[in-house]
Amino acid sequence: MGLFSKRSEQAATKPVDLIPVSRVIREPPANYPVPEAIPKLSTEQHEKYTHVLKYFQDEKLVLPLKSSKKQESAEQTAALSAYERFWLTRECLLRYLRATSWNVEAAIERLRKTLVWRREFGVTGDPDAPNSLKPETVEKENTTGKQVLLGFNPQRLPVYMMKNGRQNTEPSFTQVQHLVFFMEAAIAMMPQGVELLALLIDFRHYKEPGVIGAKSPPISLAKQILSIIQDHYPERLGKALFFDMPWYGWTFLKLMHPFIDPVTRSKLVYDEPISSYIDAEQLEATYGGKLDFQYNHEEYWPDFVSVFEERKDYQYARFLKFGAVIGLSEFDLKGKEAELRYPADYQEPSTEG
Fold it and tell me: Phi and psi dihedrals of 150, rounded to 5?
């Protein structure tokens, strides 16, 4: 089928042997394959990585506090904080290099812009920052469970579900903050060796108290969200699965199509059963899986926030333990090994190509 052709209905079956679940699933199944080491780089790739690494390791480096082009005063700039150095992992630098086709200058510029954006948006990771994005800021957006992290796919990618039919608020900046908060949570909860997420977008209408129905956001808001995802979360989407796409969803997608980059478009799936991509034991029953999940805000939300903060604190503690330097590997930060395996300047045996 073509990108905008009408989809066939997916029959969601509810098996008898349902698995009750009401909270975050903390780990993927033990039988899912786990990487034993970080991916290898060619000699040329490592040289480019080292170039970017040294740029951000420069102790004299300062960045604007805001994205305004008028940055003349020293008070409007600041050196990288410990939390910003924590964010600049080995894999982070490599994601931006891959997103710019290994163009060193372009990767550095995009990283600079994202660091400034994270300062403005309040997601540097510093809980004491005046504008730090807190759970309570976005909690009201999720009282109907319109966004949920639940389960993992066979590649151990966390499943991030957007249930547009549970929309409970009118378009606003808080909706953007809500999405960014969940993106940060999904990243923190990614298992060791995982950098991508599986996105499931459900357009069904849910007739429940507090739900105002599924509808497309204004183009301006959608463009802002898309820009944030593409510019500041590159190389994070593994697969996007669309479920029960209505006519207005197709119309909206046609309008947004010119703003979606080709790499992202290649990861969108419209007409295939969700169970083809996510095992039944990790998938909600309404999509053909075995998880008997009914969103209960009083139970799910506190657990979700607790797991998110627990993972952040754990990884940051290991960052401090291993020297608090730029370029540490997420493999080490998310692992349980007592010793550091991959120092910032680690170089694997070369594999050309």
Answer: -150, 110
Letter for the amino acid at 38?
A: I
Judge whether residue 13 has pLDDT over 60.
Answer: no
The interaxial angle of helices 90-99 and 43-57, nearest 10 deg, is 110
**The pLDDT value given to residue 349:** 61
Q: Is the pLDDT of residue 3 over 60?
A: no
Q: Give the pTM.
A: 0.89
Contact between 328 and 89 under an 8 Å Cβ cutoff? The reply is yes
Residues 6+ away with beta carbon under 8 Å from 74: none
The single-letter code of the amino acid at 4 is F
Tokens found for residue 191? 């298992």
Contacts of residue 292, Cβ cutoff 8 Å, sequence gap at least 6:
18, 19, 20, 21, 285
Cα dist from 280 to 8, 153, 160, whole Å: 21, 10, 16
CA angle 25, 28, 32 (to 5 degrees): 160
**What's the N-to-C CA distance of the chain in angstroms?**
35
Summarised one tens digit per residue, pLDDT across range 247-279 is 566 666 666 666 567 777 777 888 789 999 999
* Residue 206: per-residue pLDDT: 73
Q: Give dist(CA 192, CA 27) in Å, integer.
A: 10
Alpha carbon 262 to its chain's center: 19
| CA–CA gap between residue 151 and residue 172 (Å, rounded) | 29
Residues 162/144, Cβ–Cβ less than 8 Å: no
Q: Which pLDDT tens digit goes with each residue over 154-182?
A: 999 999 999 988 989 998 999 999 999 99
Instruction: Let me know if 335 is exposed, middle or buried by CB neighbors in 10 A (0-12, 13-18, 19+).
Output: middle
Fold of domain 19-27+137-304:
Phosphatidylinositol Transfer Protein Sec14p (3.40.525)
How confident is the prediction for the chain on average, in pLDDT? 88
Which SS3 state, helix, strand or coil, does residue 215 take? coil
Pairing state between β 62-64 and 197-202: unpaired
Report the residue count for the chain. 353
Whether 277 and 153 have beta carbons less than 8 Å apart is answered as yes
Report the alpha-carbon distance of residue 303 to residue 157 in Å, rounded.
Answer: 20
Question: What is the spatial distance between Cα 17 and Cα 289, in angstroms, rounded to a whole number?
Answer: 10
